[in-house]
Amino acid sequence: MSLTTGTSTETTPPAGPVSLAEAIHAPSLSSPVSPPAPSQRRAPARETFVHRAAHRLLSLLAAGATKSAAIVALLLLWETAPRLGLVDQTFLPPFSEVAAAWWELAADGQLADNTYASLVRSFSGFGLAVAVAVPLGLLIGWYRPVAALLGPLLEVFRNTAALALLPVFVLLLGIGETSKISIVVYACTWPILLNTISAVRHADPTLLKLAKSMDLSTPRLFQKVILPSAVPVMFTGIRLAGAVSILVLVAAEMIGAKAGLGYLINSSQYNFAIPQMYAGIITISAIGVAFNQLLVALERRLSSWRVSGDD
Q: What is the mean pLDDT of each run of 10 residues along the chain (311 residues)?
């Protein structure tokens, strides 16, 4: 603005020739460059997310196909071998007939009733075994005098098969629920107990020395050091016990039971209902796999402090 006239004056560029490069790169005063629209900024991020989601989905599908390939091959062999005459259909019917029999058992409620009876017995015995074996294993593994006192007795009973003692349980406890749950408790106790003892005895000595140097009490030592380091080995025994709880129960239900998957399999065999027998066997296998996956998820939850490479 001029001091004499009070009017505004514009700054004029210096006279002289202007090169083509300066004209191109010089900022325009009349038309400023506007920033990209938000939709344009979000477009690459959206494309990246979609690409990652698609890649993740393909990876999951490939992993699922790899894991299920052997099972699918087994089912195809099961379906085709009886139809081609490789095995007798009387004793091994095609898988489609077994699936139809399974659906009939599920529709009329027999499968649900027998499965419920087996699960109640199995989970009751398994839970009691965990409640008894884990504290006892911690005690034996930590206190040497207790291990020296109970060691010979444990060696005798852990080498005695549970099914060999089944008649003894039936004679002492009858053929009711008590004997069936007791045989499951007995069979499940040993894998949990032995793995818990081993886990406590093989705890990291460096961590133990460090914890003792901090004057931690015995309960705090178990809480902070022993139990976290013992979880992986303990759960190995717990997973073995989960499988044993179902297998031993099925054998126990074949003697004097009126309900349960073992009873269903046994009665189907006697009545020569072979597809129903295989339907019961498939149900037991499915329960075992589901129970094992549940224990694996619980183990990962309790041992989440470990690095992922240890899993």
A: 44 48 47 53 62 73 75 88 87 91 91 91 92 89 81 82 85 84 91 88 75 73 77 86 87 81 89 91 91 86 58 42
Is the pTM above the cut of 0.85?
Answer: no
Q: What count of other Cβ atoms lies within 10 Å of the Cβ of residue 292?
A: 15
Going from the C-alpha of 288 to that of each of 57, 189, 241, 245, 285, the distances in angstroms are 28, 18, 11, 9, 5
Distances (CA, A) of 123 to 63, 105, 111, 186, 287: 31, 23, 18, 13, 12
In the structure encoding, which two tokens stand for residue 2, read together?
């001029």
CA distance 201 to 25: 76
Which ranges of the chain would DSSP assign to H, the alpha helix? Answer: 20-25, 38-83, 95-107, 110-142, 144-158, 166-173, 177-201, 205-213, 218-221, 227-253, 261-270, 274-302
DSSP states of 100-167 as a string? Answer: HHHHHHHHTTHHHHHHHHHHHHHHHHHHHHHHHHHHHHHHHHH-HHHHHHHHHHHHHHHTS-TGGGHH
Structure tokens at 184: 């499951």
Burial 76-113 (b: 16+ CB within 10 A, else e): eebbeebeeeeeeeeeebbbebbbebbeebeeeebbee
